[in-house]
């Protein structure tokens, strides 16, 4: 209805996976880099997880587009199969003929093995991509593992890409699947878009659809990011409905009013006008100081340094308070953490880190993240949606989860360097050169009341990440620009 009104040639925010509208954010590019590395290695399994609508299919399609011509690919879009149906589906996808009336697991496996050996002899690589893999039965996953046993001295003859929701991580931690889990050589958990990516995403899709000008004002873009939480599928639904609302209102540019109406129609907001889902009210606090500092400057400028960011994070000791920790983990919409792994190390798989320290309660707002506060009896208190003040017996010790910046854990730090330069650019002055990270960090610390260390320490990096993106829960939900 609104195409002619806005001068568009096609619907810009259709949820159909049209390759013409493919937009690769920094997070998507980072995920693609991890998966591409996995395909080049010698392992059999590659894992990509993420919440519904975050763009896992987008990444997998981009990955397949990069595969060499000598690659044979099998797609399994319906994972609700038993072992025999899985083997038969693989044969169908690879074009292997078999007698359907007398097929058994052994005959199908023998045919697949012969096919994989022949493909390897011809210099071809075979890849299986399974979507919605969280629905796979453990027996089916074990059958896949057995298929990947076929290998040469250097490489597996079959690579399997598992794509699914966070529940897939829980499934792979089951004891009977421990051998498969050990064969995963590359994994990535895809987080939602950052605020800056949302603006580029909206403008990119509009340009592809034929728009000659911006159709969303800045306030509308900020609000749609807040309501969608950076999830592309929800972004599409909100923007499509907002364009329709603007058409009905006969206005040329989408504003917050149309975004709010679209959100109400889609059930994204309640009667009070507040977003549903994760929300954390403003806590009367102002800044943060961390005991554990991440040696970011050394890691960025001297990659050969033995002190890596991940090693520094592991100094944060996990609070032994299951109930409070579960509240914090649920706030980040993470699956249940494994009991056999150190939590800070596990969080790294989700591009998250953990920090702890001791500070006044009025020093936490700058980070704007939910935290755990340690009480004098050793218990931990979760500060989130309903906590406005800490308990009177709070010791001053806290523990928090924070989002890593793009490229933070990749060996190639170019993405991370670009992100840092962008975030610190506004703090450049006549006395701070663009490449003087310490001076820029000090300017940021002075402006926002952070502890002045003159370094890109943990508090400064955590502050930057929490203000550069709205990924994850926040203490404050006040909308900017009101």
TrEMBL record:
GO terms for molecular function: ATP hydrolysis activity. The keyword Membrane applies. CDD domains: AAA (cd00009). InterPro entries: AAA+_ATPase (IPR003593), AAA_22 (IPR049945), ExeA_AAA_ATPase_DNA-bind (IPR052026), P-loop_NTPase (IPR027417), PGBD-like_sf (IPR036365). It comes from the Bacteria. Pfam families: AAA_22. Keywords: Membrane, Transmembrane, Transmembrane helix. The chain crosses the membrane at residues 282-302. Residues 42-185 form the AAA+ ATPase domain. This is General secretion pathway protein. The lineage of its organism: Bacteria, Pseudomonadati, Pseudomonadota, Gammaproteobacteria, Alteromonadales.
């Amino acid at each position: 209805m609104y195409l002619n009104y806005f001068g568009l040639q096609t619907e810009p925010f259709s949820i159909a996976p049209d390759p013409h509208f493919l937009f690769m954010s920094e997070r998507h590019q980072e995920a693609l880099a991890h998966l591409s590395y996995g395909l080049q290695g010698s392992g059999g399994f590659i894992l990509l997880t993420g919440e519904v609508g975050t763009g896992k299919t987008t990444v997998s399609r981009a990955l397949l587009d990069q595969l060499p011509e000598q690659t044979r690919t099998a797609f399994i879009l319906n994972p609700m199969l038993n072992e025999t149906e899985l083997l038969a589906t693989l044969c169908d996808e690879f074009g292997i003929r078999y007698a359907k009336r007398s097929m058994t697991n052994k005959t199908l496996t023998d045919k697949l093995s012969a096919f994989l050996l022949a493909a390897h002899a011809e210099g071809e690589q075979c890849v299986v991509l399974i979507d919605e893999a969280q629905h796979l039965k453990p027996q089916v996953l074990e059958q896949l593992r057995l298929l990947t046993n076929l290998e040469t001295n250097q490489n597996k003859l079959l690579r399997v890409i598992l794509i699914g929701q966070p529940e897939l991580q829980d499934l792979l931690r089951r004891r009977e699947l421990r051998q498969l889990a050990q064969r995963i050589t590359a994994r990535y958990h895809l987080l939602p878009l950052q605020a800056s990516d949302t603006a580029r995403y909206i403008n990119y899709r509009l340009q592809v659809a034929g728009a000659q000008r911006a159709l969303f004002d800045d306030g509308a873009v900020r609000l749609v990011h807040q309501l969608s939480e950076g999830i592309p599928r929800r972004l599409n639904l909100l923007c499509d409905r907002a364009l329709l609302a603007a058409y009905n209102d006969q206005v040329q540019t989408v504003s917050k009013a149309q975004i709010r109406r679209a959100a109400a129609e889609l059930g994204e907001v309640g009667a009070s006008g507040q977003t549903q889902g994760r929300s954390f009210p403003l806590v009367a606090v102002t800044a943060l100081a961390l005991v554990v500092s991440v040696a970011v400057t050394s890691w960025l400028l001297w990659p050969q340094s033995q002190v890596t960011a991940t090693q520094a994070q592991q100094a944060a000791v996990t609070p032994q308070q299951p109930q409070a920790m579960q509240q914090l983990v649920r706030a980040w919409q993470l699956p249940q953490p494994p009991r056999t792994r150190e939590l800070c190390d596990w969080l790294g798989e989700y591009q998250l880190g953990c920090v702890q320290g001791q500070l006044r309660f009025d020093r936490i707002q700058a980070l704007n993240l939910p935290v755990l506060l340690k009480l004098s009896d050793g218990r931990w208190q979760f500060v989130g949606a309903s906590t406005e003040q800490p308990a009177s017996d709070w010791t001053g010790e806290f523990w928090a989860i924070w989002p890593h910046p793009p490229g933070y854990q990749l060996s190639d730090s170019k993405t991370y360097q670009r992100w840092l330069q962008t975030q610190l650019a506004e703090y450049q002055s006549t006395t701070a050169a663009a490449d003087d990270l310490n001076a820029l960090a000090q300017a940021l610390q002075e402006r926002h009341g952070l502890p002045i260390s003159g370094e890109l320490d943990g508090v400064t990096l955590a502050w930057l990440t929490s203000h550069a993106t709205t990924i994850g829960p926040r203490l404050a939900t006040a909308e900017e620009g009101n």
